[in-house]
Amino acid sequence: MIGFDNKNDSGESFNNEQKNLITALADEISRSIESKYSALFKSSYPRIPVGVSNRHIHLTEKTFKKLFGQDTVFEEMRPLYQPGEFASKHTVTIVGPKLRCIENVRILGPLRKYDQVEVSLTDSIYLGLNPPVTNSGSLDDAAPITLVGPKSSVFLEKGAIIANRHIHMTSGDALVLGVKNGDYCKVRIAGIKSTIFENVLIRINDNWRLQMHLDTDDANAAFIKGDVYAEFLGKM
Question: Among 8, 42, 169, 224, which is most buried by a count of CB atoms within 10 Å?
Answer without folding.
Answer: 169
